[in-house]
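Troubleshooting log. The previous structure file for this entry was overwritten by mistake, so regenerating from the original sequence record. Sequence copied from the archived sheet and checked twice against the printout by T.R.
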Amino acid sequence: MKTKYLIILGVAMIICFAIFAYQFTSSVDTFIVINETQVSENGTITGYLMDAYARGVENMTITYHQAGDNQSQRVSVMTGPNGIFKIENVKNVPESGSNNYYGDFSFAGEGAFHACTFERNITLKG
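Regenerated output below.
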């Protein structure tokens, strides 16, 4: 009788591990994290593309709006090791009016990783 329960428990455990392994590798949500809300001119914006398990997602393209550019124009940067990306030497373009920000950060999704956006803008200190 004990052997029967042990076998049932073992089969249930194998099924649970299989479901977890499938979810862990098949379809994963992603998030963009940026700690800065305001950056000085010529400063650096550092961000992190991570999956739902808090692992960095490397070698992916992040697109964003750059200060001074037309609203429809997008610039891209690649994530490096551990999912970290950097936008260096940010420029302040006060004459661009409402377009003087870095924002609309997005990841289009690739493979098992879902698309995501960072919905806040990074403003520039004069």
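The longest helix spans residues 2-26. Archived copy saved in two places this time.
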